[in-house]
Amino acid sequence: MNSESENIISSKIPMGALIRSASAPRNLFGNLMTVLTVSSAAIALLPLVAVLTYVILKGASRLDWGVFTQLPPAPGIAGGGLGNAIIGTLVMVAIAGLISVPFGIMAAIFVSEFGGKKPIVFWIRFATNVLSGVPSIVVGVFAYGIIVVKGNLSFGLGFSAVAGGVALSVLMLPIIVRTTEESLKLVPQEIRQAAVGVGATKFQTVFLVVLPAALPAIVTGAMLAVARAAGETAPLIFTALSSQYWTTNILEKTASLSVLVYDFARVPGGPQFINQQQLAWAGALVLVGLVLTTSIVSRLATGKRTY
């Protein structure tokens, strides 16, 4: 195209004609939807910000070193802490993790890598979806009937950290299975094909190539399951109950943060119970901090993906 033709075309198209006006319907609709999405995100975050702010304001004033190192006080006694409940929560979550993480990961590996289109794969996924929707109190009643009480079909261990860990593991299991399966699916097929191409067997490909590549995302799912289990109350009321002493035996009653917060939050009003109420807020803050820490760890693990 010569310069004369370009001059003719440019003379027929006025400057800025191709720039859409801000008042154009398409621009107005786009701006409106942007405002709606930002407003919806702010509204969705508002409850979280409100809860965190209220818990911090109510619990920070009672938060000190004694909260982490001392036992709960009796009514009317000042001071004290939540040391045994913090230890008990960590112990029961650890027991739950030792049970649910290996079984959950192995089940997900079978479903994703070895199961293919077998009917059992459908039933495993179906059972996982159903289990993820079961109320936690139902899991607590189940663990109470199987682990705690004595009977023909139960172990009869009584209220203990082991019973609490088993109940929490049931709640953690579907989260670990689903997140691990999705993590394995994210590993590109080219990696599997490359491993097979150099002579690796199916077993070697899965456990030496695919699983390490998906490990950061699997850790994320495990941390999310831990965060879910750490905040549960109903299953522990039926299984671990509570205790005023330090955890020295996992086959005895064990205190937990969630149950202790529940017990202290429902004490009657009165000056003699102010300390318990303040400790309840401090325990809620510690519990939120624990969940926040696990979430941060999961985010850091996600940021280190190798695929």
Describe this structure in words.
The protein is 71% helix and 0% strand. It is mainly alpha-helical. The longest helix has 35 residues, at 25-59.
TL;DR of this structure?
The chain contains 12 helices and no strands. It has helices spanning 3-12, 25-59, 65-69, 83-114, 119-132, 136-148, 161-186, 189-197, 202-230, 234-239, 257-265, 274-302.
Strand fraction:
under 5%
Task: Tell me about the largest β-sheet.
Answer: none
Which residues form runs of ≥5 with pLDDT under 50?
Answer: none
User: What is the alpha-carbon Rg in Å?
Assistant: 28 Å
Number of helices: 12
* Class derived from helix and strand content: mainly alpha
Mean pLDDT, all residues? 85
Range of helix content: over 70%
Through-space gap between termini: 49 Å
Spatial shape: globular
Order of helices and strands: HHHHHHHHHHHH
The strand count comes to: 0
List keywords for this structure.
307 residues; globular
Helix and strand arrangement:
Elements: H1 3-12, H2 25-59, H3 65-69, H4 83-114, H5 119-132, H6 136-148, H7 161-186, H8 189-197, H9 202-230, H10 234-239, H11 257-265, H12 274-302
Helix pairs in contact: 2-12, 4-7, 4-9, 4-11, 5-7, 6-7, 7-9, 8-9, 9-12, 11-12
